[in-house]
Amino acid sequence: MITIQGLTKSFGSKMITRGLDLSVEPHEFLAIIGRSGEGKSVLLKQLIGLIKPDAGSVKLNGEDITKLRGKKRQAIFRTCGYVFQFAALLDSLNVLENIGLPLIEDGKNPEDIKPLVVEKLQSVGLAPDVLLKYPDELSGGMKKRVGLARTLMLSPQVLFYDEPTTGLDPITVRLIHELIKKTHDEQKATTIVVSHDVEIFKFATHVAMLHEGKIIYKGLAKDIWDCTNPYVHQFIRGLPEGPITQIGFV
Ligand SMILES: Nc1ncnc2c1ncn2[C@@H]1O[C@H](COP(=O)(O)OP(=O)(O)OP(=O)(O)O)[C@@H](O)[C@H]1O
Ligand SMILES: [Mg+2]
Q1: How close is the Cα of 157 to the center of ligand 2, in Å?
Q2: Contact, 91 vs 136, CB < 8 A?
């Protein structure tokens, strides 16, 4: 269970998160939508402890992660996986080392973890022949899969994805979404995906919309196309900007 209350974050005089509240039930698959620059990545980073909020709480199974320090903090973040907006692979490491990084950091030898890395690679639909390739030699879709495989190394219970399909072709988008859903089901995880891609609604259980630093709407994904919230209506149909009252509901 994730409970966010009064989350607030400014950069200088610019307030990005403005007293945001949101609850996510265990095993929920939540898609977060919102305009570019609204603060979706900043929100996810606050949930995972990469950005410290100015105020508010983020409770993960009752524990306020914004207050945790040291070993307790490390332990709770090991149960979470985060797939970055731009895959965030380390260019100087090959695929084996990138995926194995969480265990290599724990002192494991890359050769010893190879079978597990191959297993995770296969679970994201990549063949073992990419093991010794470097990020520069991979396509965008392959990089996203490698980023996902790295996250899966620790079998996380809560998975956060930031724009996992941006810049990919429609077929790869579908494959990545299916992979996220498969991982969600197999791990019995709680999944939060930030996405611009309306195809995610076919896989998510819930949709939440971020607007002006707050979650202004949350509802079931299966009902999203009938949503009467004017901001959601406009956003998911890609309608041009303009006074919200001018939207003609269809
Ligand atoms: N570390 C930072 N320091 C200062 N400003 C930041 C920082 N990170 C983000 N911002 C600002 O916060 C705002 C929200 O950024 P964020 O990356 O969260 O947007 P987003 O909704 O994820 O957009 P996109 O859909 O384009 O990824 C932007 O104005 C951005 O410039
Ligand atoms: Mg972003």
Answers
A1: 22
A2: yes
pTM, two decimals, is 0.89
CA of 47 to the centre of ligand 2 (A): 14
Residue 242's pLDDT band (boundaries 50, 70, 90)?
A: low
The answer to whether the CB of 11 is under 6 A from ligand 1 is yes
